[in-house]
């Protein structure tokens, strides 16, 4: 089964577009969890068990594990999801991008070592840096397009103009195409030959999400920035959903993981996740509960 098919099945069975980001930060763990062995895995497992019926995906961010030398606990977390809730796709947020020979190793790291279903990739170094990922036809390759952070505008909003037309365009005051739109077009028209590409579109940019939706058709978007970064749920769902009422993997990490710093953290995470799932569904034109 391809990643896109797996995602469609997960959207349908969970009736949810919500993804929970697994960004385990020891300093924010409840004391009883932080002091145990394998505390990162124990924390993640409690969150996963409390929320598995509310999500269409989980998204571990690799830096939170590798910074502590806790790759073993990342493997344990992924294996736990795959063995206990095999219908839930796992997205590794790694934002890899390097020359082709190194990209081959990054793709192996994600898809062979960690066995995840999809990985985030930075397109800045061009096609040869993304190609090794695209060759894993049944895996998802989620390419940064318009990221959720405020600094994203510094590069991704820069307007491009074809050189021959540049002077004419400047004279007429005509605007060029922003970099993020160019990336969206490039991915949709040239890189998606295996039908395994998705785009990262930050929840903090609803206008840009609507614009890119009009360029790439039904290509799914990973939408980080709901929750702690303040992305507006109504605007993002209205801007990004497809005619089928899906097309979005809306991700939140800290607002769910750290809803409580006490012994009831997993229960509090469930309450937050359920509220976010329901808020998203309120703005979907079509979803299972409404049919
Ligand atoms: O554009 C992007 C791409 C990735 N991220 C990642 O998502 C989570 C967001 O965490 P919150 O606590 O929900 O803010 C984090 O792992 C980022 O590395 C992003 O924020 N924006």
Automatic annotation (TrEMBL):
Orotidine 5'-phosphate decarboxylase domain residues: 17-269
Single Gene Ontology MF annotation: orotidine-5'-phosphate decarboxylase activity
One Pfam family here: OMPdecase
PROSITE patterns: OMPDECASE (PS00156)
Pathway listed: Pyrimidine metabolism; UMP biosynthesis via de novo pathway; UMP from orotate: step 2/2
UniProt record similarity statement: Belongs to the OMP decarboxylase family. Type 2 subfamily.
HAMAP family in alphabetical order: OMPdecase_type2
Name of the protein in question: Orotidine 5'-phosphate decarboxylase
The gene coding this protein: pyrF
